[in-house]
Amino acid sequence: MPAQENGFALFHDPLQNRGSAFTPDQRAANGLEGLLPPAVDTLEIQVARIHLQLSALDSDMQKYLLLSDLQARNQTLFFAVIMSDPATFMPLVYTPTVGEACQKFDHFYRAPRGVYLPITAKGRLKELLQNWPQKDIRFIVVTDGERILGLGDLGVNGMGIPVGKLSLYTAVAGVPPELTLPITLDVGTNNEQYLEDPLYLGLRQHRVRGAEYDAFIDEFVQAIQSLYPKSCLQWEDFANINAVPILARYKDKICTYNDDIQGTASVALAGIYGSLRISGEKLTEQRFLFMGAGSAGTGIAELISEAMLLEGLTIEQARARCFLFDVNGLLESSRSDIADFQKPFTHAHAPTKNFVEAIESIKPTAIIGVSTVPKLFNQQVIEAMSRVNERPIIFPYSNPTSRSECTAEEAYKWSNGKAIFASGSPYPPVEVNGQKFIPGQGNNVYIFPAMGMAVLATESSRVTEAMFIVAAKAVAEQVGQESLDSGLIYPPQSQILDASLHTAAKIATYIFDNGLARVPRPADIESHIRAMAYKPAYS
């Protein structure tokens, strides 16, 4: 290949492209002379230029698209930008902006990223995966697009979720980006809007269910294990009917977890640990009422129960302190519509379809929203929680912002500043009675990137429930008193890389201690992890 042709190809390789930062020697050696303006930029100057370009844009969606194009063009520069100000850029590359990006994915489609595996290719999944250029893959985020955030069935438009999640693996915990692979399984969509849209990019058929779906998933898992035996498989945004059985089927066989179930549970538990540092109470004294009884709600309830087990309760006693509420009311023993995975949290209680009545009867110390239905934590709900608690814990965790059960301002004002608050999407500070509150964001980003880094450093053979309790405690212990005094129960996102590496070290220590690692134990685990962490720099 002539030097000029080879050099021009560098502009289209996001791992190798430096853009205006190619040095004079590199330009001469690779046939790039004349193809770039003569000035040679540093990475810092390039970052400043992107900041300037972003500041000129009017909407978060425009900023998302600029950053997406940058990631496809120059991966080093993309991560240098994100890591320069993670608190500002995480909401742009993931929630809440990614929700709108997924809804419009087929209309804004620019360049391929990741792997699409349609069910029409069953029997050939390994062959399709082999087309991915990187052969050493350690982290895979996979979705079938059926339950994207709180937005529902988006089909292949859900690819923005695996792409965004894996970007955070790198930006937040230093997992090298070349070790990651986003995947979408296309088994059809039941979203008629997309089936009728000529720009939709997925299969034009309704979703496959049952045995054919299960066989497709099994072929996929076997192909991943064959091609990438050291990889960790993260399931993302599957509907409850598939998410729960898939996790049960594979969690004890391969290195895998479901972030919606286990990551959400862990970050919620971290928030609870942080809340208890404010209230001064014990975990075993708490009672929890969930708005939403799907896989996220039951996942949080189960991890809380496992954490209470470690503090002296039996598992039955712990589960008895967790109650679920769904569209048909409180889950109680007279109901006939209870799924198997909900049964541990279905208790003897008078039937009620009124959430305020449930609060007044159960007297929960915390309400946790995972319903994806906005405004369910209304003024009556917040006031009821404030009547039965000195410091009510209010966690509207549904994403994106448009699906949140209440806003930070509503929670603080309706509770007269008593609420201990965290939400799934970010909210600005709130002032009540002359006191400034900084709302915490119970974002899974505190958990899954750190889990990924710990798995990378240890080559863990499994991801266990106990590892998520370890992660929750590690996150909570990093919140300083000044933050707690302002109501903030999670580490500041501006310091999230440092927080994630600390959490990863705690998880990795557990992995080594429990014989799950497949590499020798280093003398200093945290130093080892920090040395492994990706740093955006031109080599």
Concise description?
The protein has 539 residues and is of the alpha/beta class. It is 45% helix and 10% strand. It contains 24 helices and 14 strands.
Task: Characterise the protein shown here.
- With 539 residues, this protein is α/β, with parallel strands linked by helices.
- It folds into 3 domains: 3-93, Up-down Bundle (Hemocyanin, N-terminal domain), CATH 1.20.1370; 109-254, Rossmann fold, CATH 3.40.50; 261-539, 3-Layer(aba) Sandwich (Rossmann fold), CATH 3.40.50.720.
- Helix content is 45%, strand content 10%.
- The protein contains 24 helices and 14 strands.
- The strands form 3 sheets. The chain has a 7-stranded mixed beta sheet, sandwiched between helices. Strands 1-3-2-4-5 form a 5-stranded parallel beta sheet. It has a two-stranded antiparallel sheet with strand order 12-13.
- Strand 2, helix 10 (160-173) and strand 3 (180-186) form a beta-alpha-beta unit.
- Helix 23 crosses helix 24.
- The longest helix has 21 residues, at 259-279.
Low-confidence stretches: none
What structural category do the secondary elements indicate? alpha/beta
Order of adjacent strands in the largest pleated sheet: 8-7-6-9-10-11-14
- Domain tally: 3
- What is the radius of gyration computed over CA atoms, rounded to a whole number of angstroms? 24 Å
Per DSSP E runs of 2 or more residues, the count of β-strands stands at 14
Instruction: Please state roughly what percent of the residues sit in beta strands, choosing from under 5%, 5-15%, 15-25%, 25-35%, 35-45% or over 45%.
Output: 5-15%
Proportion of residues in helical segments: 40-55%
| Annotated CATH topology of the largest domain | Rossmann fold
Separation of the first and last Cα atoms = 24 Å
The CATH architecture classification of the largest domain is 3-Layer(aba) Sandwich
Number of helices: 24
The main β sheet shows up as: 7 strands, mixed
CATH H-level homologous superfamily name of the largest domain: NAD(P)-binding Rossmann-like Domain
What spatial form do the alpha-carbon principal axes imply?
globular
CATH class of the largest domain: Alpha Beta
What is the residue-mean pLDDT, rounded to a whole number?
A: 95
Oligomer: single chain
